[in-house]
Amino acid sequence: MSMPLQEVERQLAELAGAMPELLKHNQGVEFWIEFMDRADAIRNRVSLDQFDWVTERIYEVLAAYGICTPSRWILAAAAGAN
Fold first, then answer.
1. What is the 3-state composition of the chain as percent helix, strand, coil, each rounded to the nearest 5?
2. How many Cα atoms occupy the beta-carbon half-sphere of 39 within 13 Å?
3. How far apart are CA 38 and CA 11, in angstroms?
């Protein structure tokens, strides 16, 4: 079952708010594991019509910190949306 929009927004805000701690306590691959686990937990609970929007919002969280989204994750997102 997909999350209500208000819950999606709340979880995206939590993800954005967690970035300073994630970056401070996780280096390299550890950061990506933690970040992707959190991001995927959100994306896995949204409706198909919200999937691309949520994915873009997650990319925006990374971009706010000057971080590029790994291409492997982008490809997995595209495959999951089909």
1. 75, 0, 25
2. 27
3. 9
- Residue in this structure with the two tokens 């997102």, named with its chain if needed: 77
Confidence of residue 5 (pLDDT cuts 50, 70, 90): very high
Tell me the one-letter amino acid at 28: G
Helix axes 5-25, 48-63, angle to 10 degrees: 30
What residues have CB less than 8 Å from 19, skipping those under 6 apart? 61, 64, 65
* pTM confidence score: 0.81
Q: Are 3 and 11 in contact (CB under 8 A)?
A: yes
Q: Which amino acid is at 78?
A: A
Cα 57 from Cα 68, distance rounded (Å): 13
Tokens 């954005």 sit at which residue? 16
